[in-house]
Predict the structure of fumarylacetoacetase.
Amino acid sequence: MATLNETHDPKLTSWVVSANHGTTDFPIQNLPFAVFRRQGSAEAWRGGVAIGDQIVDMAAAVQAGVFSGDALAPAQAAAEPTLNHLMGMGAQAASSLRKALSKALQTGSAQEAALKACLVPQADAEFTLPARIGDYTDFYTSVYHATNIGKQFRPDNPLLPNYKWVPIGYHGRSSSIGVSGQAFKRPKGQVKPPDADAPVLKPSARMDIELEMGVFVGQANELGDPVTIDQAESHIFGLVLFNDWSARDIQPWEYQPLGPFLAKNFASTISPWIVTMEALAPFRAAFSHPEGDPQPLPYLSSDANSAEGGLDIQLEACIVTPQMRDAQAAPERFTLTNYRHAYWTAAQMVTHHTVNGCNLQPGDLLGTGTLSGPTLDSACALIELTVGGKNPLKLKNGETRTWLEDGDTIILRGWCDKPGAARIGFGECVGMVLPAA
Amino acid sequence: MATLNETHDPKLTSWVVSANHGTTDFPIQNLPFAVFRRQGSAEAWRGGVAIGDQIVDMAAAVQAGVFSGDALAPAQAAAEPTLNHLMGMGAQAASSLRKALSKALQTGSAQEAALKACLVPQADAEFTLPARIGDYTDFYTSVYHATNIGKQFRPDNPLLPNYKWVPIGYHGRSSSIGVSGQAFKRPKGQVKPPDADAPVLKPSARMDIELEMGVFVGQANELGDPVTIDQAESHIFGLVLFNDWSARDIQPWEYQPLGPFLAKNFASTISPWIVTMEALAPFRAAFSHPEGDPQPLPYLSSDANSAEGGLDIQLEACIVTPQMRDAQAAPERFTLTNYRHAYWTAAQMVTHHTVNGCNLQPGDLLGTGTLSGPTLDSACALIELTVGGKNPLKLKNGETRTWLEDGDTIILRGWCDKPGAARIGFGECVGMVLPAA
């Protein structure tokens, strides 16, 4: 599964000096992909790779002849206006490109001069979706989230009997997925107060977030050909932060019997930078179900998945209210969790999704589901943090939040940090709720 | 909403004589769109229009200079390898093209010679998906289906309280949608027998069909901009037949709390020909909820929707078993229903889907849900027809079917026929179950 190579060496430094500060999300050991152009320009969208506070403009770098050999074809694909082609080339191609980028960006590289001309400051860039997302599937991999929210939707029956056997997932809406910076109108929908005879159409009064990770599919599988658990990671390109905005008053009235629909599909936001599975190799974690829980069925089990199916990724959500924005206050963190708490791994998501022959395609997105941890302060949705709206969050400036208000901005962040490895990060996933139309 | 014009005149005939037999699905009053090429060729896929037993090759027809004026741009779009562009141009553009096609194909048309050279026999053609389907949503618009199936999944609670208020829908899988002729391996999945302690992974033993219609979205709406009920039909390009294959033993174990997933996403099949909303204008039907049922909320109500929101489309499903195939027996019909039995109209599906601001895009597909009628012989899934597997279908050759067996072929057909209008049809939607891998 995860193999360390020279690109992960924590001692590596780059001639892009901002990449060498220990606090950057984008040291030379990371090298995530996005699609960008200069802010406000009419330039073509093209792929880029983050290094420190800069972006390697892949179109310019290919033009400048920086890449050759095995790295050339993936470099050309990484220069396109969507990364679907790169994703579909598979893990080996992406790895060749990573090696070439790592060499070219290293301190002392002979390509410094050529590549320096291809840098664009991140501060000057705007981003778009890194891929045409054909299908988006959301999973439900935190047993803590499933239990917390189950208590509120089904007090007598919080965790359904299938949860510990089936990596529960459902299809979501691709068209309304946007990239960090997305601002969306508060949705309207049918809401039925418990004591009312009939529902009413109104703007949601229970706007919530869900802190998730998004898994971008790489290499495709053919319709009818399941992906085994040991092959699953070779079908994953990389990970982003993902905010699955939710309207908690629309959800309970509509979701039975076929699942959430309008409570979720008005907007979902991803971070622009896709951190590859290879970059995450130093942060693999052992994976197991708690003692006493059923072991996964054989198709969902493998030694590699047990040894290192988990991912040690710290995740946080912060809020900026309009009042905080006016006061230029720093974003305030209201939850901190870790992806390793998930009950099902990314590989298990892929394998389960395809066990019936369903075909995954390059650029498809799999959400992990809300990644709430075992304690309340690591819960990843307001519905959990406020216990269904009963205990509002208290912010440092004296404001409270039960649900999101108009003008509230949510910032998701994620990072990996452990002794013996270079810290890498995901950047930010920022979204804002606008007033209803 | 629906306006009759000269293209609907039942007296119109075509110089393509096979279009003038009263039994053809494709008289000059229909003019549906597909994407095709000559069978087994390496030709480019391009759009075509059905006329009798022929196809107007739109790429050839554009090349031949058959179209001009308002019809030229939509004709060029109709010649592309997917029809998304044509769909996105809106109803007015499609209508201009329809008028031009109707004139050019009429008996006595000056364009007969030019267009004759652009015909390809349908018998020589193969078809592909007519559009890149970005998102696919399945609705649940038959109250009879919801009640029948609800009785089996939730005996105490068959029709949930939201059903008569909310046009229930959920997201489905786009990648596994195929065109008529699709053959797919029987899916494997987790199945839990009621008396077992644990689920097992096995090939589905309860393969079923769902006879639906598919609604192709035309003109897009922007994210955040709902489509009103009176505008909804201007966002619909046309209709196809749709078979939402279902694995009934996978479904009950996986579907709670987030809805059906692997029980549905291994394959779904559409008919190749998209019949436009304009072609269906003579077959509109009054629409209302039964007396005593709640009236739809105002956003789902309009005079036009009440006057003619329904569609009088006859629908049937037929089976060909391997034994029947060997005996060269005719396909055997096992259900006959009508789209006008739906509890929610196509316009209500569009308006509800977008009321929260969700954006629909050209080529998106909306399934109506299984279109079971009020009586058991008009039920549109085996799970209903066999009452959950208890009463097998008896076929004329003495075979029985509780669920589909390997090698079974299902053929869906649909047509509109009433006095004073030319009969039009949808062609066929054919799919076959192959053995599990």
Remarks:
- Chain A has two domains: 6-128, 136-434.
